[in-house]
Amino acid sequence: MTTAPASASTETSTETPRWLSDEEQRVWRSYLEATTLLEDHLDRQLQRDAGMPHIYYGLLVRLAESPRRRLRMTELAMYAKITRSRLSHAIARLEKNGWVRREDCPSDKRGQFAVLTDEGLEVLKRTAPGHVAAVRQALFERLSPAQQKALGEIMEIVAEGLQPKEAGADLPWLR
Questions:
Q1: Positive or negative CA dihedral for 123, 124, 126, 130?
Q2: Which end of the chain offers a freer environment for a tag, N or C, measured as fewer CB atoms within 10 Å?
Q3: Three-class SS string for the chain?
């Protein structure tokens, strides 16, 4: 909850919560609504055009941009900001489609690589133009260049603050 509940109890805390102001609440709710709608918009476009959710598309893109179109599974989970379990499930689905394959890591018996196949690269090439058009239409065409720059700077600050560097941090890809 981000605003004071009607019957806010302070029995469990000696500090009074710092509730969001009306303006902060407006910004927060606008952010939630926009990000939820944007993710749904991109998911629907990718399901329609390629039969895959947005998260899978992101995995294929990351692999395509990697040397030899391959990454260690733990590194891919870190880039995707997802748990290793969720990544393993996603890779299994992509393997079933023939778009990705796993390879054992020769230097680490427990490690594996995810490798983008030629078929996966072709799917990505066919899907990318429609996806870029959907992103452009949903986001960039609605913002001025100054707003785009500000949004990028803001999101970098937020992301940096949520990705602690200290050892033992509770991050999805470490779970």
A1: positive
A2: N
A3: CCCCCCCCCCCCCCCCCCCCCHHHHHHHHHHHHHHHHHHHHHHHHHHHHHCCCHHHHHHHHHHHCCHHHEEEHHHHHHHHCCCHHHHHHHHHHHHHCCCEEEEEECCEEEEEEEEECHHHHHHHHHHHHHHHHHHHHHCHHHCCHHHHHHHHHHHHHHHHHHCCCCCCCCCHHHC
Distance CA 119, CA 30 (A): 39
Asked whether the predicted pLDDT for residue 106 surpasses 70, the reply is yes
Cα separation of 69 and 78, whole Å?
16
Q: Which pLDDT score, from 0 to 100, does residue 10 have?
A: 44
